[in-house]
Design a protein that fits this description.
The protein contains 19 helices and 8 strands. Strands 1-2-3-4-5-6-7-8 form an 8-stranded mixed β-barrel, surrounded by 4 helices. It folds into 2 domains: 17-202, EAL domain (TIM Barrel), CATH 3.20.20.450; 218-416, Hypothetical protein af1432. With 420 residues, the chain is of the alpha/beta class. Helices cover 47% and strands 12% of the residues.
């Protein structure tokens, strides 16, 4: 039985910080951990802004442990949490569960004797230590000796200097892992793979691998035809049943979905038409869209499909909060990464779908009446950009929608299972 995703009441949180996460991937592109990202609330009427790194670390730690819960943000993965000089020397890291976190030492932390002694003690106690934003120099040697994970800041290193940086860091030996930070293109990901990096962080998986036109495989063309048909607002139960039956794998997933415990049905449903009649056209269409997007992205890293599902739900929840037509916003979020899923330019990826012009404008042109919500959702996890202010959405409602969407996307990924 899948747990229900949390309600806004369950996730009522403080408004002084915005919390998000960014996945950290292994070489096979499976998710190993998440870095917890945070910034001060942009609302001037909210709680006081964060004044220093220690304040930030303490407040985020308190929120994660006492209000939200680590599992609601990172599930069963590790959480990378930034810790400052003061946080270290004041021995505040011991409040964090060592089996669940990686202590990420901020780049401006000086390697004083007090810092080194505390980090050695934390390491001896079983905590995993990471160094943030590393560009190698001898002044970092004492910190590197203690660390388990070295986060290499790619944008700060000239491309030609990167092999030498890797060689110097590898010379420290042991079981240290190198993490390539801010990997934004597939080309950079491949280069870092070739150089032997162990872990990767950045949104390269949310971008197309190529922008040149390429012929889609027939199974993907069939999924696109189905996705186009699902956009027809006038499709009825009979038409939808016939459409869905053209994809046997999708039919199996739909029947599993309908027969899951969440619907509390008294008898087993064994036909698509019965499922549509009992559960309702809207729910069946929504799940069919989700499963079709998942099928299209079967050969992609799982975080990409997760991000598409997350965006769909967060757009929907914010639309409800703003008293708008939530179904259109769900579709907008779901299709906002279709270029990366199909490895095509966005215009080319959207053209076969015959979408509502408002949806196309929001996704492709970042314009129109729906663009404010999709742009807010797009930028939420991107901590190089400020979350745009919104006239009707408070930071609390945005943060709650974010957390609920994470939980929903995780539950939905579990329901979808694998692609086979």
């Amino acid at each position: 039985m899948h747990p229900s995703y949390p309600s806004a009441v369950d996730l009522k949180i403080m408004s002084s910080v915005i919390i998000a996460r960014q996945p950290i991937l292994e070489r096979n592109q499976n998710v190993s951990a998440f870095e917890i990202l945070f910034r001060s609330s942009p609302e001037q009427t909210a709680a006081p802004a964060i004044l220093d790194d220690q304040h930030a670390s303490v407040e985020v730690t308190s929120i994660l442990l006492n209000e939200i819960g680590l599992n609601n943000v990172v599930d069963d993965r590790l959480a990378f949490i930034n810790i400052s000089y003061d946080f270290i020397v004041n021995r505040l890291a011991y409040a964090l569960p060592k089996e669940r976190v990686v202590l990420e030492v901020l780049e401006n932390t000086p390697p004083t004797p007090e810092v080194l002694d505390e980090l050695k003690e934390l390491s001896d106690e079983g905590y995993t230590i990471a160094l943030d934003d590393v560009v190698y120099s001898e002044s970092l040697d004492s910190l590197i000796e203690i660390a388990d994970i070295i986060k290499v800041e790619l944008p700060a290193i000239a491309d030609g200097d990167l092999p030498d940086q890797v060689k110097k860091l590898r010379a420290f030996g042991g079981q240290k892992k190198l993490l390539a930070e801010k990997v934004e293109t597939h080309e950079m990901f491949q280069r870092c793979l070739d150089l032997g990096f162990d872990l990767f962080q950045g949104y390269y998986f949310c971008k197309p691998e190529t922008v040149k036109s390429q012929k889609l495989a027939e199974n993907k063309m069939a999924s696109l035809r189905l996705l186009k048909a699902l956009q027809n607002p006038d499709v009825d139960i009979d038409e939808l049943s016939i459409l869905l039956q053209t994809d046997p794998i999708l039919c199996v997933k739909l029947l599993k979905f309908v027969n899951s415990s969440k619907f509390h049905l008294k008898r087993n449903i064994d036909s698509i038409r019965s499922a549509t009649t009992i559960v309702g056209l809207k729910k069946i269409k929504s799940f069919a869209q989700i499963a079709t997007i998942a099928n299209l992205g079967c050969d992609k890293p799982s975080p990409l499909i997760f991000e598409a599902l997350f965006r769909a739900k967060m757009c929907e929840l914010l639309a409800v909060e703003s008293k708008r037509e939530s179904e259109k916003y769900f579709t907008t979020g779901l299709l906002s990464l279709v270029d990366a899923i199909l490895d095509q330019p966005m215009e080319e990826a959207l053209s076969p779908l015959s979408l509502d012009s408002d949806i196309t404008d929001a996704i492709q042109n970042h314009q129109g009446p729906m663009s404010d919500v999709i742009e807010l959702v797009r930028t939420y996890n991107n901590f190089d950009a400020e979350v745009p202010a919104h006239p009707t959405l408070t930071i609390e409602s945005i943060q709650n929608a974010y957390l609920m969407s994470l939980a929903w996307a995780k539950e939905t990924m579990d329901e979808l299972g694998n692609c086979n």
